[in-house]
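ok trying this again, last paste got cut off
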Amino acid sequence: MKLTVVGCSGSFPSADSACSSYLVEADGFRLLLDMGNGALGELQRHIGLYDLDAIFLSHLHADHCIDMCGYFVARYYRHEGGRCDAIPVFAPDGAEQRLTTAYADTPSPTAMSEVFDFHTLKSAGFELGPFSVRTEKVCHPVEAYGIRVEHGGRSLAYSGDTGACEALDELAEGVDLFLCEASFTHGKEDIPDLHLNGREAGAQAARAGVGRLVLTHIPPWTDGERNLADAREVYAGPSELARSGAVYEV
């Protein structure tokens, strides 16, 4: 599998990165994990606007899904070849209504579903293109999911937004690459069931025995290098900060 970091900033875009968005590719199939603020523009640096095969939205906070409104415009009003066929979108319950409300002026109440084939997420395993996918509900103030993607004997997991939880341990168990949020700073913020800090992300990686840890969703006001250092105190494997445009062969 090929993993491309389209955007990795938490809460709002930084000067260097759009918000959460990660492209996973294998056998010509392209799965996008989240489409936060600024992600749609950055995505076009890596693939064509209409080259996606499926989208996973971990939850419905703006920094993970708001650029779906712009993508709706691109797919609904495509100038060449007519309106796009509906692309599968795996998202928490209420995603269509949420995006319709955010857009504010769709041509009809069901226009979103004309170009997005919404599937309601739950804790489950399923096949998607060449991938074996598992999703689990994680701990966040709104309904939120992490995801595990497997192909050809290799695996990666993406935490989405979450506090520490057993579901994340299960998703990440033994994966080759763990893309894990680290929004908070150890010793500074301590709000249960909201976000992880660097040390907690490292502890999750250590418990799960992952092959590589990539810290992501670090807001512009958080010191990423400190979070990475905190993670390395409890996780001995390879670790680094996500960077916009970074590519990993998994």
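PB: full thing came through this time. The chain has a mean pLDDT of 97.
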